[in-house]
Structures are given as structure tokens and as C-alpha cells.
Amino acid sequence: MINQKTHDFIVVIPARYDSTRLPGKPLAIIDDKPMVQWVYERGVASGASKVIVATDDQRVFDAVKAFGGEVCMTAKSHESGTERLAEVLNIYGFEDDTVVVNVQGDEPMIPSVNIQQLAANLIKLKDQNVGMATLSESICSYNELINPNVVKVVTNKDGLALTFSRSALPYDRDQFTKQAADINLDFPYQRHIGIYAYTAGFIKDYISWPTSQLEQIESLEQLRVLWQGKSIHVDLAIEPPPAGVDTPEDLEQVRRLVASLKQQ
Q1: 149, 157, 116: which is closest to 135 by C-alpha?
Q2: Which residue in 63, 112, 154, 247 has the fewest CB atoms around it within 10 Å?
Q3: Alpha helix locations (H) across 109-150?
Q4: Helical residues (DSSP H) of the chain, grouped into ranges
Q5: pTM of the predicted model over 0.70
Q6: Exposed, middle or buried: residue 203 (CB in 10 Å: 0-12, 13-18, 19+)?
Q7: Mind listing the pLDDT tens digit for each residue in 4-55?
Q8: Closest CA to 153 of 189, 115, 196
């Protein structure tokens, strides 16, 4: 377990109401609590010095206030959670070296130890001119590897990201010509886990950069960082999290998981 007292960081939870596939997602009820409350409580359990929900909707704002959480109203015009996070940092006036962990509002089961791990990693790397860090987990099946909804990441020997893609990377020329049942995943393929830590100053730089064609093609905002020649550190998650909630089916799966955990 990481010593929480030695790591000063904040958590910001972007929670947009108008999700395309699951409208009102932050307020979806899981075992008598809205999803955003589950995420908020994970942030608090991580030992963060402050946890803030960033929303664009009065209903989410009121729900967070109702359970005693801290919430910041932001503009509806933001195109990404990172842009929403940047507005929060501007409103609060955090110093540039403040470590900020961006926990998506649709990750109700994110292990708090992962949040701690990510913050601790970036704190150690700040002196090495690394302003952004994230996590990954192993891919164990070919079907997962070729699933475009599973984002893959490839790193160098120092754990710095070479690229992210929805395609199977690296492409094994010899293996992938076989039938799926015969493929042996010898390479340690990695699935990217969509949780990030940054310094506040890095986020200010990020939102000043234009989107790149690579980012637009893959629909992966982290590729903007690599396009600019900046580094992203990737570490294997201490505790791989369950899948987040993107669809009504995902929501039902999380509800079943919570119900099963209560019965244990």
C-alpha cells in the first residue's frame, strides 16, 4: 500500500450529463447511490487532499451537493474531460506543480489504490520532465486485442508511451495470419486504462495545443501529447479495474457486480 500521507495530490472527476450512449449517466443509480457518488468516494479513499466533481449540469451539481461532495460548475462547450478539468484548475487557481488525477465519472469501481499509484508515479517523475502518467493492464485474449473499443498502448524500456491505438499493436505478422484459436500472444500486449495524472502546468500547455490528425483518426486525445513530442509514463496497474460504464449493458453489469460483492 502506498503511503497516502506522503503524496499530496487532488482528484478531479469530469461528469458530463449528456452522454450519447447513456444520457444522465452520472446520476444512474447503483445500489441506492448515483454513479458519480461511487467515483467520488473512490477518490476520497485514495487519500487525495481534495476531490472535485466537474460538471456542466445543474442536476449533477445538486446530486453531488446532496451527498456532501465538492462540485464545480463548468461550461457545456468543452470537447473533452481534460478541457473541463482545465477550467476547474483555472477557477481554483492551483499552482503549476500541483499533481492532478483525472478520474472519469463513469468508473464507479476504480480501485482507490490505482489513484494513489498514479499520483505517486507522477510525483516521482516530475523532476524528470514527465508531466503526464497513466496505467495499463495485460491483454490475455486475441478477441480483446482486436476489439477497437480496447485501447492498446506500447511503451519503451523506460515505461514511456510510444503510441496508443485501437488497432492491435504491435502487429505480429506471423501469428495474426493464423486462425484465432491458434494464436499465441507471446508479446506482453497492454490495454490502456483511461485514468491520468498530470501537473496543473502540463494541463495548461495541453489545452493550448491544436488537435492532431492522428488524434482525430483514432479518437484518442492522449495522442495530442505524443504528437507534441512530450512524454507519457505508463505503469501496470496494481489492481486492474473492472470495465467502466459506457452503455446500458455496462451499467447492468456493474449493478450485478456490486450485488454479488454485497453477498460475499
Answers
A1: 116
A2: 247
A3: 112-125, 142-145
A4: 35-45, 58-66, 81-92, 112-125, 142-145, 200-208, 213-218, 223-227, 248-263
A5: yes
A6: buried
A7: 444 589 999 999 898 778 889 999 999 999 999 999 999 999 999 999 999 9
A8: 189
Partnered with residue 132 across adjacent β-strands are: 198
Residue 44 has a CB neighbour count (10 Å cut-off) of 15
Question: Is 218 within 8 Å of 165 (Cβ atoms)?
Answer: yes
Of 83, 163, 159, 81, which is closest to residue 121 (Cα–Cα)?
159
pLDDT tens-digit readout, 51-98: 999 999 999 999 999 999 999 999 988 888 888 999 999 999 999 999
Which one-letter amino acid corresponds to residue 45?
A
Residue 181 binned pLDDT confidence (cut-offs 50, 70, 90):
low
Grid cell 461550461 — which residue?
75
